[in-house]
Design goal:
The chain has 295 residues and is of the alpha/beta class. 44% of the residues lie in helices and 25% in strands. It has two domains: 121 residues, Nucleotidyltransferase, domain 5; 148 residues, Exopolyphosphatase. Domain 2 (Nucleotidyltransferase, domain 5, 2-Layer Sandwich). Helix 5 crosses helix 13, helix 7 runs parallel beside helix 12 and helix 8 packs across helix 12. The protein is globular, with a radius of gyration of 19 Å. It comes from Spirosoma endbachense. One of its GO terms (molecular function) is pyrophosphatase activity.
Amino acid sequence: MKLAAIDIGSNAARLQISTVLHNDNVVSFKRVEYVRFPLRLGHDVFNFGELTPESEARTTKLMQVYKLLMELHEVEDYMACATSAMRESSNGHDVAKRIEASTGIKINIIDGSKEAELINNVVVQALDERQFLHIDVGGGSTELNLYENRQKINSKSFKIGSVRLLEGKETKGAWRKIEDWVEDNIDSSKEIIAVGTGGNISKLFNLASKTSELETTLTEIERIRDYIAGFDQEDRINKLRLNADRADVIVPAAGIYISVMRWAGADKIIVPDLGLKDGIIQLVYAQLGKKKHVL
C-alpha cells in the first residue's frame, strides 16, 4: 500500500509517496518518490498580501503533475497541506478552492500549531529522556517545541522564516519574541540539545562535519553558514551546487537556527531526516479507515 503527502510551503511544494511496511506489529514507511518544486509563494504573500494569478496558475499545474504521479504509483490515500504563505494570503482559501475544482486535489490550509503537531509526531521518535528544543524553520514561519522525557512541554509558532527574512518582511519584534520565549521556557540548569528540521538545516548538516550520524555542533553550523555566505548567489549555484531557491535562503535560515541555539545554550544539534511531509503520511495512515480522497 502506498500513501502520499503534499506539503505546500512558502518556498517550495513537495510530494512524498511512501510504501507502508509491516514487520510483526511495527509499522514503518519507506519513501519511494520525492519531488520538490520551488513555487516561492511567500514572495507574493509577504510583499503583496495575496497570491498572484501567475502563482495560482503554477500551483495548479504542479498539483496536476502531483496527481498524475500519485495515480501512476497507485496511491491509496493522500493529504495536501499548505502552511504559512497560503494561510496568510488574503485569497488563500479562494485559491485553494479553485485548485481543487480544477485538479481534484483538496488543499488543507493548516495553522502553525497543527503544522508543529504533525512534525512533532515524527520527530519525537528520535528523542530520549533529555531536554530537547526542536527548531523547524520554514519559508514563512519558525516553530519551536520543547521536549523532556519525550513529552512536549511547550510550543510556539513565530512569523519569521527564510523567505520572509530574504524579503525583509519579518514581523516586527519577532527576534525578541523568540529570545524571550526561549529564556522563559528552557531550564538552563539542564543540558539542552537542539533538534533541527527543514530543508535548509538538512543541507547545512550535509555539508558539515558530524560528531555522529545524526548530530553536529553549533560551531560547525556557524562555520558552514559563514563559508556559504562568502560566496555570491551565482557561485553558490555553480561552485557549491546549491539549487537557486536554496542558495538565496540558506544563510538567513541558518541565522535563525544559530540564534535560537545560542539563546538556548545548545551546543549540539540533531538533524533527523524528517519533516512535515512525514507527519502528513503518518496522519493519513492513522485516518485510513475514514473517508478517503479519490484520485
